[in-house]
Design goal:
This protein is α+β, with helices and mostly antiparallel strands. It has helices spanning 18-27, 56-67, and strands at residues 2-12, 32-40, 45-54, 72-84.
């Protein structure tokens, strides 16, 4: 299995989507290296950064599922290094 290391940046504006987002992240927990969440209460948003090591198709599918949540924006950046696991 080929994997890539990368990050996913997530901005949550609709707090009703937090439960579903956490469910998706938990489901993909085996690929998550680390996670940092910052509640920005003054602006009413949550900022989440996820570091991962996962196959390209898993990364794309997860980003798509997260991006389809109401009031949630996601961007990914990946290293050019591909590992064989």
């Amino acid at each position: 299995m080929q994997t890539r290391v990368g990050i996913m940046s997530i901005i949550v504006e609709d707090m009703d989507s937090v439960g579903k987002l956490n469910e998706l992240l938990h489901k993909h927990g085996e690929y998550i290296i680390g996670r940092m969440g910052i509640p920005y209460r003054q602006k009413g948003v949550n900022i989440i950064s996820i570091a991962f090591d996962a196959p390209q198709d898993v990364i794309s599918a997860l980003a798509g599922q997260i991006g389809n949540l109401s009031g949630v924006n996601v961007k990914t950046a990946m290293s050019g290094i591909i590992s064989n696991e």
